[in-house]
Amino acid sequence: MRGKSADNINHHVGDAEFAIELTTLCNSSCKHCFARLGISRDASLPVDLVKEIISDGYEVGYRHLHLTGGEPLLWQGLFEALDYGFSVGYETIFMNTNGTLISDEISKRFANYDNFSFSVSLDGPENQHDRQRGKGSYRRAMRGIETALKRGNDLTIFTTVSKSLLPDLPYFVDAIYKAFPVIDGIILIQLLCITNDAFTLSDELLDPEDFIRLVRMVSLLNVGGLRAIVKKNPIANVVLKFIKMPIIPQAPPLYSEGSIIVMANRHIGVVHSNRDSFGKYRRGMIQKVLASDVYRKTVAPDQATCPSCRYSQLCKEYGMIRPTQGYDDRYADTPFCKRVMDRVESTQAATTANLAENFARDRW
User: Fold this and answer.
1) Using one digit for the tens of pLDDT, what is the confidence trace for 259-285?
2) 327 lies in some domain
3) Which residues pair with 186 in a beta bridge?
């Protein structure tokens, strides 16, 4: 590893989220879950170790803490970790939950923290959600959201977008805002391609045309006052710029400088959806990983594929510095982002040609 000054590292991680996977325990059995993929037995971090990791991250320069799972509400040390995280100086703490275990007592305790917020996963209307997460899970999650909002908790809805959800997506988003108008927003997560999954999701993955349809919907939803964002997939903004539609709030790329997560098995990775490891956590390891050549290469602008792509300059302008990863339909050698842009370009060209042909016919 080559040296990189602590000052430079602190500068780059200040606005980034530092994530900890507290546990892989979960009371859901989601068919599209990447967190439990390939795990033969559940793992949980000891409370004292989590506090050490929290402290270590703060000393490196992180000020935004992200707690995830599994289901964090099944991890016994959650409130001790929240207390400790704010006591050492984190400015915000964000947590993911499926919402089914949120009680009035838990909501009251959450409400005691300033600058604490969380997401609740809701993968479409009841039939869609229960198909992915188990019968009755939609109603339990909806009760959890209602309970949390009554206590003034700040929460966001996370929705995984599959092919079958796409036709109902605008109606779903509208229904959620009508039911819960004070939520912070809806974050839409394109269904990831999970290799070696027990339940094949190939038929549910979005193809390029589906993705273009998704970003058009999201743009129009925002125009209509319904805040929705495509999570960590800035190719959405590139598409909207190209087709000259209103651009939705921008999101950082999946792999961005400063991103890091300590997994429940103590391995350090760059994102939760990829279990590639930079090594096992020990005190001081976070700074060593951030300073390493392998980490910097992982989050740096792509030098293998993007430079030869004719869309690269437009992509860079909107934060797309690496090809999309994890969203492919398993059958394409060409990166998903390029296939999306090729489809947009061909559709635009066909539309222009049709307009010209109609104009000529009408004129003569």
Assistant:
1) 999 999 999 999 888 878 999 999 999
2) no
3) 157, 228
Please indicate, yes or no, if residue 341 is contained in any of the structural domains. Answer: no
pLDDT of 106 > 60? The answer is: yes
CATH number at residue 16: 3.20.20.70
140 inside domain: yes
Question: Is residue 9 helix, strand or coil?
Answer: helix
- pLDDT number for residue 332: 64
Residue 251 covered by a domain? yes
Residue-number span of the structural domain to which 28 is assigned = 6-301
C-alpha–C-alpha distance, residues 55 and 88, integer Å: 7
For residues 243 and 280, what is the distance between their CA atoms, to the nearest angstrom?
A: 45
Among 135, 143, 144, 86, smallest CA distance to 115 is for: 86
DSSP state of 249: P
Q: What angle do CA 20, 186, 134 make, to 5 degrees?
A: 70
Kindly report the average pLDDT of the chain as a whole number.
87
DSSP structure string for 205-222: SPPHHHHHHHHHHHHHHH
For the chain, what is the domain count? 1
Rounded to whole angstroms, how far apart are CA atoms 275 and 152? Answer: 35
**CA angle, corner 259, sides to 328 and 217, nearest 5?**
45
